[in-house]
Structures are given as structure tokens and as C-alpha cells.
Amino acid sequence: MRLYLASTSPARLATLRAAGIEPVVVPSGVDEEAVVRDAEGQSGPLGAADMVLLLAQAKAEAALAQLVTGGGHCDGLVLGGDSAFLLDGVIHGKPHTAERATQRWQDQRGRTGELFSGHWLIDARSHEQPRALGATTVARVTFADDITDSEIAAYVATGEPLHVAGAFTIDARGAAFIQRVEGDPSTVIGVSIPTVRQLAGRLGISWPELWSTAESNSLD
Questions:
Q1: Core-most of 7, 98, 102, 208, by most CB within 10 Å?
Q2: Active site amino acids
Q3: Distance of CA 25 to the CA centre of its chain
Q4: Can you give the residue ranges of every domain in the chain?
Q5: What is the spatial distance between Cα 203 and Cα 129, in angstroms, rounded to a whole number?
Q6: Considering the entire predicted model, what is its pTM?
Q7: Which of 185, 72, 187, 38 is nearest to 119 (CA)?
Q8: d(Cα 217, Cα 212) in Å, to the nearest integer?
Q9: Cα gap 212→132, rounded to integer Å
């Protein structure tokens, strides 16, 4: 069973590979800010859980549309994902700039926030009526309280925190500054492996069917 990953996140790809799955990467090209803006214009402000699920769905559907453009077809599952970090009721996505990443780390050291990851899985094997399911997971992340300003500066200088939700990782350099994770650790990485397994099962697909030893595939 082939899995198409509607994400360019190296961390999501590595996590799926570590779980025995070699997905075909299909960048979705979704304008995340526009999707959220349109949704909030219709129904009001979105909470973190609703926002990441909405974006996961948008990415999966956009990737599927790319796959079937021009009469093509999709012979497997399409997975979309999105993440956001909630601290003091404020939703934080990717900081993008060193200044913003530095400020976030100064604000969150010694504190606990919640990392939300949305998942949207489409079974596109049926050309007439693809089935889809979604789920949002959350994990509580506690940061060490003894992180120094010089450590923050050095971490931000690596560029790693600029392009990840909440400005931190648990699978790379950021792991040294995280004291505790309550919940599924892969949620913090951006794709909850137990949740994807459960969604696949609800679509009638056994998890081992997705295991692969094939070489990486990618659609630019």
C-alpha cells in the first residue's frame, strides 16, 4: 500500500521512515495563511486543534488534486499534517525570523505548552468516492528552566527553530532543552504514528500493509 505524504517536512518524513514506511512526497503548495483567513472569515477565530486539522485536510486534498490532474490517479493513501504550539492561549506556528524565535524561547523556558498536530488521511483508491478521516493529537511540552541566553542564541543561530511550529524540535538539537513530554512524542515531531495507524485501520488498512523497504520517492 503506497502512502503519499502531503508535506515537505524532513521531520515527518524521517518519522515515517523510522516506522517502516517510505512515502512518496508530494508538496501541497497550500497557502496556509489564506486557508486560515478564509475559514475565520466564515466562522470566526479558530482554536489550535481546529486550525491544524483544517490545514492538514487542505494539504491532503491539494496533494490528491495534483496526483489526479490530467487524468491521473492515486493508488493509495494521502496523508496531510500540520502542527501548532499553544502557550498562554496564544497559537504559535513557525517563527521564520531569528528575532521571533529568540523571543519565543525566552518566553517558554521553564514553562509548559501544548503542541497540536492535525492529521488528514484520504483513501484515494476509489476514483469515485475517496474516503477520508481526520484526527488531532496534543502533547504537553515542558522546557528546562536553566536554559541560558547564550544557549538560546546558539540554538537560534543554527536555523533549526526558524521553520518548525513553536520554534523547537525534540528529534534534533532542541531535544537538549526539553525537560518532559506528556503524550505521544511523535505528535511533537508533527505526525503521530499511533494516530495514523488508527486512521488507516478505520479505513480498513492493516498497518503492516504500509511497511516498505523501497527507496525514497519524491514528486517535485
A1: 7
A2: 82
A3: 14
A4: 2-218
A5: 13
A6: 0.92
A7: 187
A8: 12
A9: 22
Residues 6+ apart with CB under 8 A from 130: 64, 122, 123, 124
Distance CA 65, CA 58 (A): 11
Query: What count of residues does the chain have?
Result: 220
Query: With the C-alpha atoms ordered 149, 154, 159, 165, is the resulting torsion angle positive or negative?
Result: negative
Q: Which CATH code of 3.90.950.10, 3.90.580.10, 3.90.1150.180, 1.10.1370.30 fits the domain covering 2-218?
A: 3.90.950.10
Best CA proximity match to 32, nearest among 3, 64, 8: 8
Which amino acid is located at 192 in the chain? S
SS3 track for 27-57: CCCCCHHHHHHHHHHHHCCCCHHHHHHHHHH
Owner of C-alpha cell 528552566: 145
Nearest by Cα to 51 from 65, 62, 35: 35
How far apart, in whole angstroms, are the C-alpha atoms of residue 73 and residue 125?
Answer: 8
C-alpha cell at 1: 500500500
Q: Which three cell numbers stand for residue 143?
A: 522546557
